[in-house]
């Protein structure tokens, strides 16, 4: 595995901001900048958030915008701005975990299927087709039914649901790569299948894997927020954008729309930025 | 050891219903160069791929260095042993190298797989091999895209001979190169054979190239061998109609293109 | 129609007849092509002077990067995006450079046709062979559809495809590369152009098919009095099928001569080197005489003679500026030492 580490370091070593910016284009750079801002705020929430997100304050209940509370308070009077900042952590960490799991499993399945071919490939491909046909929410409902409401069950369910999303694209790219003469040359040299997959195929597939996982991340944010909105994912009183849209709708009918608007807008912006970035990374991968 | 480095008998390969190679037999003696000549669809590349184990024959047998090659799954140790008997260079110099692997690493990986060398020894040997194929030390740290087609083909040759195989299969290895580069690579191959006593199986559609590089030739058409013999005799006085047509179609001084019967 | 009976082996006679036919059909004068590279221009073709007479076949020979294909494409206005064309292209007395797109399209449709290396990439895969062949006749020449179909069948028979009716209903994927290239040639004949640009028309084909396709192209071109510019890397093929040859290196023409004369007495060291380094089917040499190094593109060349770094006959002064083109016993050569060198041709 040291080879992979070297390869990654090598890639980073050749990284230059201006070249990356040119490859991403204006939309890509804007998306990356937005994600960077959101991530910074997320990490610095303990420092930046003006209030404790879980501290009720009855004087601030359903209050509108004010100097002390720019986005007002929710039904329990908790500071909406602080809850949005803290909420980013739960809202984004779940999807990241989902995508990490599905990317690792999906890539392993894809490369194994592409390399082995024949029956293995047929079985894996059919399995992926079946998984792909079932909506992610259904998997999440199943795991929640088994494990009870909570983040763990939903993350596992969605990780399974997103596996084919990564695996199908990576498999077809791996098939193409596997038929390249340099792979045949390595085989004739006596290299093991594992070494060829890890040291030749994976590095060459990296751009496609990254692009596909990043755009999957966008959809995972929506799915997880939707599930929290339904009350099956993140449980109150934890701050979470999906939950905030739900409770915010209630507040909105009582004259405080900022909670639902803020959370909803952030979900839309982050998802859009992630998908644009994924698309750009994919295009860059094509040109290589 | 046997006199023959390769003995192929009754080789056959089917892809579904189609028969790509049918009853192909030949032998190759140590240090000799054998050309397998044919047009597209003649089955010559399939023969090359069967020799190096990239395809499993549907019938017939192959012995390399006196040891019969059995099909099916083989251990990695056995595969590495076979690798030291036979290596291959492909046609396309662009896709036969990993675009992310540096030139020095290509050759070092090959050495690491087969010889117990210290990193320093391996490095030194890799540079020797690059030099032997006409590349310089500075090329070792380059990526394939920084090299020309001819230079990449030199790297592919260095990678193959690093293993010190008995036989090198060259599958249209100079077909994609410019004329002036083709000559350089053909001379390089002749030098390597003279120095090391390696044997070649030279797969090609180009009779002039075959004439220059091989001692013996078999002519394939539709998966079968239609004529065989000493390359010079074969090209000077082809006996079979197909070989005659093939020879007549090669542009040369005083040549005129000719039409066959309407298809 | 004395042109048709002309023997290729008699360059003097053909020169004389060209004079009678009233000058050349195509004239390239100082043609240059450059593409933008950052803030700079990257030259691909430089100062190309070449003329093709009516009914004449000229071979443009070179290795990769020599600019031979780009020269042909520039004639048709098929240049890369943002490219800059300099010099003049004069076709049948009309200046093509700077011509408006519409007029250029008309020229391309009726008077100059191109045969590409890969017919599969240039024939619409979802339309039948019949549609492909009749389209240009119906759209550009205003031929009624039934007549166009009848003509297409005749053309297929001309290029050696007997069962034309059946082939017309087939689709490109059902035909082999050799057959498809013949269809491509038939489509070129359909509009009866004055000039055919053939860009490596047989490179993707087997040798026996190459021989046949070249024979068809050659025969039909002569019958119809069409001129041809054959772009190829294969000097032997060009010598066998063309009246005159031009050899390109690093974006420039280094030598132009009648085909027979060029192969017998090449005047440029590159031409000679190219011929000698090609293995022969008639004789084996211990080692091939090689040209060291690799072919350069125009933008990679230094200030002096672009070939000098690879040239066995180079002198220090070869690095001083581009060699001027000199006339030498019917040859045009861009070599400072052309007059003093005796170079080996084909044996």
Automatic annotation (TrEMBL), chain A:
GO terms for biological process: transmembrane transport. InterPro entries: BP-dependent_transpt_permease, MetI-like, MetI-like_sf. One of its GO terms (cellular component) is plasma membrane. The keyword Transcription does not apply. It is found in: Cell membrane. Pfam families: BPD_transp_1. Coiled coil: none annotated. CDD domains: TM_PBP2. The chain crosses the membrane at residues 24-49, 96-118, 130-162, 214-234, 260-278. The keyword Transmembrane applies. It is a multi-pass membrane protein. Gene3D superfamilies: MetI-like. Belongs to the binding-protein-dependent transport system permease family. This is ABC transporter permease. It comes from Streptomyces sp. NBC_00119.
């Amino acid at each position: 595995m040291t080879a992979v580490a070297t390869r990654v370091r090598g890639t980073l070593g050749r990284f230059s901001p201006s070249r990356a910016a040119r490859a991403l284009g204006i939309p890509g750079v804007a998306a990356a900048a937005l994600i960077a801002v959101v991530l910074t705020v997320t990490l610095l929430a303990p420092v930046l958030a003006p209030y404790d997100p879980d501290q009720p304050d009855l004087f601030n209940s359903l209050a509108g915008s004010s100097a002390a509370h720019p986005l007002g308070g929710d039904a329990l009077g908790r500071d909406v701005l602080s809850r949005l900042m803290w909420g980013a952590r739960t809202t984004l960490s779940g999807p990241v975990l989902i995508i990490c799991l599905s990317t690792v499993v999906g890539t392993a399945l894809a490369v194994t299927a592409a390399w082995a071919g024949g029956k293995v490939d047929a079985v894996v491909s059919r399995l992926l087709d079946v998984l792909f046909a079932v909506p992610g929410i259904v998997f999440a409902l199943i795991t929640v039914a088994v494990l009870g409401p909570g983040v763990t069950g939903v993350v596992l369910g969605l990780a399974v649901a997103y596996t084919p999303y990564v695996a199908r694209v990576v498999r077809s790219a791996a098939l193409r790569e596997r038929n390249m003469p340099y792979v045949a040359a390595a085989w004739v040299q006596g290299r093991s299948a594992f070494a060829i997959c890890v040291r030749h195929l994976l590095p060459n597939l990296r751009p496609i894997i990254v692009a596909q996982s990043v755009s999957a991340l966008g959809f995972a944010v929506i799915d997880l927020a939707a599930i929290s909105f339904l009350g099956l994912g993140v449980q109150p009183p934890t701050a979470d954008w999906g939950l905030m849209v739900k409770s915010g709708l209630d507040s909105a009918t009582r004259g405080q729309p900022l909670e639902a608007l803020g959370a909803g807008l952030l979900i839309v912006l982050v998802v859009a930025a992630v998908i644009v970035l994924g698309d750009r990374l994919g295009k860059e991968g094509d040109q290589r | 050891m046997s006199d023959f480095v390769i003995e192929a008998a009754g080789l056959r390969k089917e892809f579904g219903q189609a028969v790509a190679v049918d009853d192909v037999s030949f032998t190759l003696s140590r240090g000799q160069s054998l050309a397998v000549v044919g047009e597209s669809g003649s089955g010559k590349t399939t023969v090359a791929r069967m020799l190096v184990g990239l395809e499993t024959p549907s019938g017939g047998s192959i012995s390399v260095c006196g040891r019969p090659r059995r099909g099916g799954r083989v251990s990695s140790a056995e595969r590495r042993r076979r690798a030291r008997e036979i290596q291959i260079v492909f046609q396309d110099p662009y896709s036969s190298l990993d675009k992310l692997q540096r030139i020095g690493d290509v050759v070092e990986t090959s050495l690491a797989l087969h010889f117990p060398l210290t990193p320093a020894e391996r490095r030194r040997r890799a540079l020797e091999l690059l030099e032997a194929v006409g590349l310089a030390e500075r090329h070792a740290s380059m990526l394939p895209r920084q090299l020309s087609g001819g230079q990449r083909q030199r790297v592919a040759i260095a990678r193959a001979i690093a293993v010190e195989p008995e036989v090198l299969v060259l599958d249209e290895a100079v077909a994609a190169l410019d004329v002036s580069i083709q000559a350089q690579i053909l001379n390089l191959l002749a030098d390597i054979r003279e120095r090391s006593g390696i044997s070649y199986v030279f797969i090609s559609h180009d009779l002039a190239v075959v004439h220059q590089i091989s001692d013996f030739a078999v002519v394939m058409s539709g998966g079968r061998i239609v004529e065989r013999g000493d390359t010079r005799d074969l090209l000077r006085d082809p006996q079979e109609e197909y070989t005659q047509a093939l020879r007549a179609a090669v542009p040369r001084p005083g040549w005129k293109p000719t039409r066959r019967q309407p298809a | 129609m004395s042109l048709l009976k002309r023997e290729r082996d008699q360059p003097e006679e053909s020169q004389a007849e060209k004079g009678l036919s009233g000058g050349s059909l195509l004239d390239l004068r100082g043609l240059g092509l450059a593409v933008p590279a950052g803030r700079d221009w990257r030259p691909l073709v430089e100062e190309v002077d070449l003329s093709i007479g009516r009914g004449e076949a000229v071979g443009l020979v070179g290795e990769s990067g020599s600019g031979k294909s780009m020269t042909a494409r520039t004639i048709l206005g098929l240049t890369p995006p943002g490219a800059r064309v300099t010099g003049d292209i004069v076709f049948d007395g009309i200046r093509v450079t700077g011509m408006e797109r519409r007029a250029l399209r008309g020229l391309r449709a009726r008077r100059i046709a191109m045969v590409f290396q890969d017919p599969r990439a240039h024939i619409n895969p979802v339309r039948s062979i019949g549609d492909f062949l009749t389209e240009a006749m119906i759209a550009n020449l205003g031929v009624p559809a039934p007549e166009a179909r009848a003509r297409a069948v005749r053309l297929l028979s001309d290029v050696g495809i007997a069962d034309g009716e059946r082939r017309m209903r087939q689709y490109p994927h059902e035909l082999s590369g050799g057959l498809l290239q013949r269809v491509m040639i038939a489509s070129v004949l359909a509009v009866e152009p004055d000039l055919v640009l053939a860009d490596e028309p047989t490179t993707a084909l087997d040798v026996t098919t190459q021989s046949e396709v070249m024979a068809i192209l050659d025969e039909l071109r002569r019958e119809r009095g069409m001129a041809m510019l054959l772009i190829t890397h294969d000097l032997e093929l060009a010598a066998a099928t063309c009246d005159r040859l031009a050899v390109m290196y690093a974006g420039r023409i280094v030598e132009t001569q009648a085909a027979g004369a060029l192969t017998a007495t090449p005047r440029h060291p590159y031409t000679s080197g190219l011929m000698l380094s090609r293995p022969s089917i008639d004789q084996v040499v211990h080692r091939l005489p090689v040209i060291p190094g690799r072919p350069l593109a125009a933008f990679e060349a230094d200030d002096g003679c672009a070939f000098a770094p690879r040239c066995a006959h180079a002198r220090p002064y070869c690095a001083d500026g581009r060699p001027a083109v000199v006339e030498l016993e019917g040859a045009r050569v861009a070599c400072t030492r052309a007059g003093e060198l005796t170079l080996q041709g084909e044996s």
